[in-house]
Design brief:
extended, about 30% strand, alpha+beta, 4 strands
C-alpha cells in the first residue's frame, strides 16, 4: 500500500496557478469554441454579459458569445493585448 501511495504521489503534478492561461491561449489560437462550463472550469467563474453586450472580460481575456454548443452558450476566446 505504501508503494502505491508513493507511486500515485510521484505522478501528481502541482498545477501552476496560471495554468489556465496556456489553455486559453490554445483555444484563442485554435479558434476553438468553449461552452460556459468549460470557461468556468478554466477561469473559476461563470461568464456573463452585461445587458446589450455579447462580451465578457476577465483579466487579459475576452469571451464572446457566438452561439450554442448543444444547449450551452458557445464562447470564442480572444487575448487582450495591451500596449504600454
Amino acid at each position: 500500500m505504501e508503494q502505491l501511495v508513493g507511486a500515485i504521489a510521484a505522478n501528481i503534478q502541482a498545477k501552476s496557478p496560471i495554468w489556465y492561461h496556456d489553455e486559453l491561449e490554445k483555444a484563442a489560437i485554435g479558434g476553438w469554441l468553449l461552452s460556459t462550463a468549460e470557461v468556468k472550469h478554466l477561469i473559476g467563474v461563470k461568464p456573463y454579459c452585461q445587458k446589450g453586450s455579447n462580451i465578457y472580460t476577465h483579466g487579459s481575456w475576452q469571451f464572446i458569445k457566438v452561439g450554442k454548443i448543444g444547449g450551452a452558450t458557445a464562447w470564442r476566446v480572444e487575448k487582450i493585448i495591451m500596449e504600454i
